[in-house]
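Good day; I would like, with your permission, to put a structural problem before you. The record follows directly beneath this note:
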Amino acid sequence: MLKNRRVGLTEVITGCTLWGASGMVAQALLDQDQVPSGWLTGVRLFWAGLLLLVWYALGKGHTVWSIWRQPKLAGQLFLFSFLGMVPSQLTYFLAIYYGNAPTATVLQFLSPLLIILYLAAVHRQWPRRIDVLSIGIALFGTYLLVTNGQLTKLALAPLALFWGLVAGVSSAAYTLLPQRLLAQFDARLVVGWAMLVGSLPFGPTMVTTRLPHLNGVVVGGVAFIVIAGTMLAYLLYLKSLQSLDPATTGMFSAFEPLTATLLTVTVLGTPVTHFEILGGLCILATALLQALPRRTSMAS
C-alpha cells in the first residue's frame, strides 16, 4: 500500500510539474498572439487524445472501443469530458490570456479546497486536520510565489479573475468525475477518449482559424504542450487517483505554480526573492505532510 502511494505521489508531482512547464510555454504563445486560445485548446485535446488512444491500441487492440459498449459509462465519459476536461483547459488558457500564467494558476489552485469540501459533504465528515493544514500552507505558499508578498500584485482584469475562478471549479470537477471510469478502465483509454470527444466542438475553429506565421519556436511550443503538458501531464495526474484520494491529488497541483516560478528563474533569468523561496518551501512542505502515513477515514 505504501509503495502504491509513493507511485501515486510520483505520478501527480510529475504531471503537475509538466503542467507548470506547459503553462509558461502557453503564456509565451498567447502573449504574442501567435495562436488563439480556442485553437490551442482544440489542437492539444485532439492530438493528445489521439496519441493516447493509439498508444493504448498498440498493446490492447480492439479493446480501445470497450468503453462505448457500456452506455452508462459512456455517458459518464461525456460528463467528464465536457464538465471537467474541456473547461479545465479552455478556462485556464483564457485566464492566462486575460491575465498571466501565475495568477491563473493561483486561482485554479482553489480546486483542492473545493474537493476537500465536496468530499466532506458527501461523507458527512469534517476534513482531517492535516488536510486543512496542508491546504492552508499550500495556499499561503502559492500566494507568496505569485505575488512576492504584495497583495496588490493580484490585481486582475475582471475577465482574468472570472476565468481563473471557473478554472478552479472545473479542475475540481476534472479530479472528481472520472473515479468510476478509472476503476474499470486503463487511464490512457479514459483520458484519450475524453480528450478526443472534447476536441469535437473545436473542430470548426481548428479548421478555419488562420494562424500567424508559423516557425520552429511556435511548432515546438505547441508540440510540447500537446505531448508533455497535455498527454503525459493529464495521464499521470489521473493515474495518481488510482493510488491517492482526490483531496491529496488535488493538493499536489501546488507543484504547478512552483514549477512555473522555478522555470521563470532558471530559463528567463528572473531574480528570485526571499518571498518566492519561502513560498516554494511551503508548497514542498505540503508534499511532506501529505506523504505521512494516514488513516483511511477522512476524519482526524
